[in-house]
Design a protein that fits this description.
The protein is α+β, with helices and mostly antiparallel strands. It is 29% helix and 28% strand. The protein is elongated and about 55 Å long.
Length: 124
């Protein structure tokens, strides 16, 4: 490992994928949270089911789930994982105004799913 302590850099500073083959398979969960800010009128339209784009929250939820499943395709050096569960909770926060997004990702594997949870929130 490089003196920087970064696990994705070798002793010469070259980027590489971390070898997790020596790790035991275990149940892992990660939770990430983010907030979507919007105009009060936009929030009101979504809450009232009057958004011109249709089911905004359903589409956002699907986007978050798909993003979690494709994280290794868009985040360099991220391991492809057999994710077992992704849940996306989207709750209105009128004081923002906007929504609070929470992604919970589960896997039975040799590495964690933190990047998948962060990517899910980002795409939602």
């Amino acid at each position: 490992m490089a003196s920087s302590g970064l696990t994705h850099l070798d002793s010469t500073g070259t980027a590489h994928m971390v070898d997790v083959s020596h790790k035991n398979i275990s149940s892992r969960t990660a939770v990430a949270e983010g907030f979507v800010l919007m105009n009060p009128q936009t929030l009101e339209a979504i809450l009232n089911g009057n958004a011109s784009k249709g089911d905004v929250l359903g589409t956002a939820r699907i986007a978050g789930i798909m993003a979690a499943k494709k994280t290794s395709d868009i985040i360099p050096l991220c391991h492809p994982l057999m994710i077992t569960k992704v849940s996306i909770d989207i709750d209105p926060e009128p004081d923002l105004p906007g929504y609070r997004v929470v992604a919970t990702v589960h896997v039975n594997g040799q590495t964690g799913v933190e990047m998948e949870a962060l990517t899910a929130v980002t795409a939602t």
